[in-house]
Amino acid sequence: MNTMTTAKTTPTAEDDGLEEVVFDVFARGCPSRPTMEHVTGRWGGLVLVALADGDLRFNALRRRVDGISEKMLAQALHALERDGLVVREVKQAIPPNVEYRLTEFGSGVVERLQELIGFVEGNMAGVLAAQQRYDTAKANAEAGA
């Protein structure tokens, strides 16, 4: 699997040439790493997938992502919006209505996350069995120590 992505960018407005930029999520200073963390962190992926079915208001998102605090949801949404995965739209109403939706990039990320979620959920019987074996072996090792 190739973990490096090549992107063409225009470095400055005065420069008509294109510069090749290689992003490597494994490199400490690579700007792709924080975005990867926002997508794969505790809440980011869940927020993105919750938006897969359509636009949601803040409280509807909070209800959908069970267990997320208001503060953590706000932080996740800010990070995902900054990364270009989510758009925040303020609709003029009384009271003001704010909705969040996926961008095209966000939709592409969600497709991949949904595949991963399905794979994990489909293999949970094996995961639970592995956890049980591990816990039993660890308890036996500690009892014998």
3D architecture notes:
The structure is a single chain. The protein has 6 helices and 5 strands, in the order E-E-H-H-E-H-H-E-E-H-H. 52% of the residues lie in helices and 18% in strands. Strands 3-5-4 form a 3-stranded antiparallel β-sheet. It has a two-stranded antiparallel ribbon with strand order 1-2. The chain has a single domain (4-144), classed as Winged helix-like DNA-binding domain superfamily/Winged helix DNA-binding domain (Arc Repressor Mutant, subunit A). Mean pLDDT is 89; it is low at 1-14.
Q: How is the topology of this model organized?
A:
Layout: E1 4-9, E2 19-24, H1 32-40, H2 44-50, E3 56-57, H3 58-64, H4 70-82, E4 86-91, E5 97-102, H5 104-122, H6 124-144
Antiparallel strand pairs: 1-2, 3-5, 4-5
For this entry, give a set of tags.
145 residues; alpha+beta; Arc Repressor Mutant, subunit A; three-stranded antiparallel beta sheet; two-stranded antiparallel ribbon; 5 strands; 18% strand; disordered N terminus
Q: Helical segment tally?
A: 6
Mean pLDDT: 89
User: How far is the first residue's CA from the last residue's CA?
Assistant: 42 Å
β-strand percent reads 15-25%
The CATH architecture designation is Orthogonal Bundle
CATH topology: Arc Repressor Mutant, subunit A
Count of individual domains: 1
| Rg for CA atoms | 20 Å
Strand order of the largest sheet: 3-5-4
- Kindly state the percentage of residues in helix: 40-55%
Secondary-structure element series: EEHHEHHEEHH
Pfam families: HxlR
Domain HTH hxlR-type: 30-128
Keywords: DNA-binding, Transcription, Transcription regulation
Protein name: Helix-turn-helix domain-containing protein
